[in-house]
Amino acid sequence: MISSLHRPTRALIDLGAICDNIETVKANIPEGKKAFAVVKANAYGHGAKKVAQAVHHLVDGFCVSNVDEALELREAGIEETILILGVIMPNEVALARDYDITLTVASQEWLDLANEQDISLKGVNVHLKVDSGMGRIGVRSLEEAESLMANLKKAGANVEGIFTHFATADEADNTKFNEQLAFFTNIVNNLSEKPALVHASNSATSIWHSETIFNIVRLGIVMYGLNPSGTDIALPYPIKPALSLESALVHVKTIPAGATVGYGATYTAQKEEYIATVPIGYADGWTRDLQGFSVLVNGQFCEIVGRVSMDQITIRLPEKFPIGTKVTLIGQEGDKAISATDLAQKCGTINYEVLCLLSDRIPRFYSK
C-alpha cells in the first residue's frame, strides 16, 4: 500500500522517547542482563528500520516474526543478533544462514522435515522454544528438549539459546505465571548442557517480575511507551508513548436538525450542528467500531458521528473551525490526551492491536 504523503493524516514517531523507555526499563532490572528489542510487525506500527537504527546501540539484539522482517533489518545495516521468534519453513534455512539470522526451533518434527529435504543446519544459530503453557509452539517436556537439542547439535546447528513465553505476565493474578515459570525453570535447570542464552521475560515480565529474568529481556510494547496490561495494573515508573496520530479538517458544514450522517444513516442531528470531515478511515486502521469515540480539535473532545468510512470520518464540532484545523487522533493537545489504550478500550481490544492496525497508507515522520 502506498504511503499517502499528500494528505494531512500522519503518524509522528518520537525515536528519543523509545530510546528513553529502553533506558528506563534497563535501569529497573538487575544489572548484567541483555536486552533484545522486539521490532516485529513493523515495530508495532512505528517503523522497524527507523526504530532499529535508532536503538541498536542500546540493545544486544532484535526479535522479529519471520525471515522477511529479519532481512529488512539486515538491509537497513543492522548488525546485531536477529532472532526470529516464529517457526520458519526448512527451505528458508539457507537464507537465514546467509544473513546470519538466528532461528527458533520448536519441534522434532521440524528437524525431521529439514533432514528429509536434505537441508543442512551446519553453522546455523538456533534457540529452542519451550511451550510452558502458552499453547502455541515449543517442546513440552524435559525429555523433548534434551532430545531435540542433541539432535540439533548432531545436525551441526549451534544451539545458543532456550526460551519460553508467558501467557499472563500482564495480569494481576500470578497463578498461571508462576506455573509457567516453574515449568520452564525445571527444564532449564535439568538440561545436561544449558545453552548460553536463556530468556522468558517479555515487556510485562520486565516491568512486574524483573526478579525472574534469566539473562535476556525481550522489550516489546513497553519500549514504545505503552502499558502491557492496558489499565489493569499500574506502571511502577513512567514511560512515554512514542507515537502520535494527527490529521486536519478538510470539510466543515452546518446540518439542520433531523439530518443524518454516514452509511446506514446511523446518526441523526438533534439540532443544527457543525459537522466536519477528517481524512482517515478503516483502510488506515481507524476501525468502524470507533463511531462514538472522540478526537481532539482545538483542545476539545469532538465525537465521531456516523459510521467510520473506508477513507473518512465525520465529527461534531462545538463551533465552526476553518478547514485545515489540526485534529489529534492519538496524542496530547493542551491538557487533554487520547492514547492507544483509550482506543483499545473503546474497541474491546488491546493497545498492541491498535498500533499494529495503523496501515502503511499513513506516512510516518520521525523525530529524535
From TrEMBL:
CDD domains per record: PLPDE_III_AR
EC number: 5.1.1.1
Catalytic activity of the protein: L-alanine = D-alanine
The name this protein goes by in its record: Alanine racemase
Pfam family, any one: Ala_racemase_C
NCBIfam families: alr
Active site: 40 (proton acceptor), 263 (proton acceptor)
Residues given in the record as substrate binding sites: 136, 310
Cofactor: pyridoxal 5'-phosphate
Top-level class of the enzyme under EC nomenclature: isomerase
InterPro entries associated with the record: Ala_racemase (IPR000821), Ala_racemase/Decarboxylase_C (IPR009006), Ala_racemase_C (IPR011079), Ala_racemase_N (IPR001608), Ala_racemase_pyridoxalP-BS (IPR020622), PLP-binding_barrel (IPR029066)
Keywords associated with the record: Isomerase, Pyridoxal phosphate
Annotated source species: Streptococcus infantarius
GO molecular function, one term: alanine racemase activity
PTM-bearing positions, type N6-(pyridoxal phosphate)lysine: 40
